[in-house]
Amino acid sequence: xxxxxxxxxxxxxxxxxxxxxxxxxxxxxxxxxxxxxxxxxxxxxxxxxxxxxxxxxxxxxxxxxxxxxxxxxxxxxxxxxxxxxxxxxxxxxxxxxxxxxxxxxxxxxxxxxxxxxxxxxxxxxxxxxxxxxxxxxxxxxxxxxxxxxxxxxxxxxxxxxxxxxxxxxxxxxxxxxxxxxxxxxxxxxxxxxxxxxxxxxxxxxxxxxxxxxxxxxxxxxxxxxxxxxxxxxxxxxxxxxxxxxxxxxxxxxxxxxxxxxxxxxxxxxxxxxxxxxxxxxxxxxxxxxxxxxxxxxxxxxxxxxxxxxxxxxxxxxxxxxxxxxxxxxxxxxxxxxxxxxxxxxxxxxxxxxxxxxxxxxxxxxxxxxxxxxxxxxxxxxxxxxxxxxxxxxxxxxxxxxxxxxxxxxxxxxxxxxxxxxxxxxxxxxxxxxxxxxxxxxxxxxxxxxxxxxxxxxxxxxxxxxxxxxxxxxxxxxxxxxxxxxxxxxxxxxxxxxxxxxxxxxxxxxxxxxxxxxxxxxxxxxxxxxxxxxxxxxxxxxxxxxxxxxxxxxxx
Length: 555
What we know:
555 residues; alpha/beta; Rossmann fold; seven-stranded mixed beta sheet; three-stranded antiparallel beta sheet; 47% helix; globular
């Protein structure tokens, strides 16, 4: 999580009185679940100004404090523009309930709103009918419920639209201030107003889909959590398992995607040579596998009942030694004590960034690290899997050509051929996977990366392992990059999808997720991350990354 999001979340929690509230990827969450507040002026994406962030945090805090989220979700319309209007009404209802003595809070919220309003005007929000209508309704609601009026330049812009809307929804506007302290009663005029405006837009266009498209085209109408209503419903329905992400991420075609084992990447004789190279590299490291296993034991072992051990001079009477008690009443060694034995029911998946940028990093050291971890964890009866991800071609490949042949439709989504590699699966031992693991030592298949899909794939495989405790470790050198997809979609398309997948895993599964960086820090995507020093000879301290991620101070 970035530092500004931490500060925003801290301020929000103070106002809301909600200790589990967070801001992740510009979206509001409570207890790792998304909260769909689709109020345009609460977007955190377009303006990083400190005063505006404080105002947004205060406004969101009031929303969490004064609004019943379950009731709001139950009442919310599903038509996009109606959903936005209804949400704006509820937001201003909550702000109207703010303590009048909190002058600083009110001032922060006013700054946040004014900066959004100015920015929206500068970005042409009044140039479309839908944009102007939502902009006008927002200012009308603010004036009615908060008694805060529009600036002169805004007033001139919205005057005509406001007059027309007054005739249509004036009765609903008059009722709202009477029910500010009753959310359900307030929702009646709010829903009526949202419905009437939605019908007006449908009458003025060719239908609801055009209205929805107009909203999505206008970035100033896309608020924090625009796509979160479906997620909230989804979490109510199935909160305990990984489900398909709801976001703007899509795949143009999966027809050219490839999944292979490591020993399918290269010929047998090449793999033998690579294995020799890997064994030589391991022998040069100052690491004993048995010593590593010993150090990792406390991290993965859990004590279980091991029965009783007899012949003790204290404890409970051992019934099997009753004859000894009769024969020699002074014999103290007739007691038994309960003992515990270490047991393991854990699985660890290493998902390794095998992309072009890793060629200039310490990819050989990563191969040594993974191979050694597999052997040590296997000695502890921990299930292990080592996966890799790349693309099957440079610059898109067959998927991009198919998209171009189809006329290059806009916003195609991922237009690359992905390559997912199973270097070692849960069902195979280290010995059975020796040659497959050695394929990490050759970089011919290191191309580009679609990290979000790879992490999701790894998580789904880990969930099927049957282990009680599940650990997923991403080893990478930075953010995702695949040229074709990045060129033909919006900015940060792959980065946002990785954030989304990580958040989904953390919210909906019991997987413990961590990241190991071999270059740039990864805490922007995975809060639980650490940096591995893989330069020079690896020592036991180099293998401390699992302990740092999952609970021990040292390996």
